[in-house]
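Sanity check. The docking grid for tryptophanyl-5'AMP depends on where the pocket ends up, so I'm generating a full predicted complex first rather than guessing from homology. Inputs follow.
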Amino acid sequence: MTGTTEKKVILSGIQPTNKLTLGNYLGAIKQWVRIQNDYDAYFMAVDQHAITARQDPAQLRKNTLFSVACYIAAGIDPERCVLFIQSQVHQHSQLAWTLNCFGYMGELSRMIQFKEKSAKSGSNIPVGLFTYPLLMAADILLYDTALVPVGDDQTQHVELTRDIAERMNGIYGPDTFVIPKAHIPKVAARVMDLLTPTSKMSKSAVNENGSIFISDSAADIERKFKRATTDSETVIAFDTENKPGVSNLLSIQSAITSESLEEVIARYEGKQYGHLKLETAQIVIKELIPIQQRAQELVDEKTELNRILKMGAERASEHAERTIKRIHERIGYVVI
Ligand code: TYM
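Predicted complex below; grid placement will be based on this.
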């Protein structure tokens, strides 16, 4: 039932709301690149998730194309991986409806992301914000996914996906769905806001100076790191409880250079916070600037990106359709 391939499937996606952040890059894209060759890999821009908050149409389209261009520029191989845009594969919303009938109000109400985002939505909370985890479950289950490489804020959604898959396997047979697992990076699973290092770095932060965007200029990156909140001590040590700002900078460096935290800390013996901030900025600039330049070239050139996305949507649809047929048969829909 797991298709025709031998390798296990990994799948992940990012919402193309606003511009992608350093958190998206380190928590997700960079680890996708690292493990893409060991799996059958599916990576997508989840534009249908993005519309749970109001989007400007032209901006959404632009952000979606730029985000998939960033995946490629960061090292995702579009020939080997299946790279696509969620809304181009209709089976996602098709399976999401079925899962809507198996997810429970109680479990969806417990989702942290729903609680946080609905609190910001005023009195008109879109239903899609509530059922969003079921669309994410559909994304994952459609491809018989074994591993879902994400930052740690998505663990709860992957757990819910597992619960629903197990529930349906209990009803329709143990091989109805593959049960997926989250795959969380060892460092930078939660990149923190530079100004408020007790909160996650986010695409939609109120103050953009706390977030580094993949598309930021070198000057902006340097300015934001220079202003990063640290603490009133002078010691450079990793202690997320008491020194969240300094620990965040150390984690960012470690995630980019692949040095251990101890190795990074050792380089700062006898140095000051100013050195740490400036050098972190330089390491980030060196990593992000070539990616943003290549991504922009891909977007400007258009033809190659369109070819990749068309091929990705076709390959994704093929696998997705096999799953839809299997599920529809088990549920009792008429399959012709
Ligand atoms: P989204 O768009 O909020 O974030 C995309 C990915 O980036 C990671 N991430 C972070 N990692 C470390 N530090 C941060 N500050 C940080 N901010 C974001 C997220 O953990 C995620 O891996 N629901 C998902 C998108 C989604 C999805 C899927 C993911 C839809 N369908 C299927 C995996 C599989 C979301 O909102 O991610």
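Relevant for the grid: Residues 273-301 form the longest helix (29 residues).
Also worth noting: The domain at 9-189+303-331 is CATH 3.40.50.620 (Rossmann fold).
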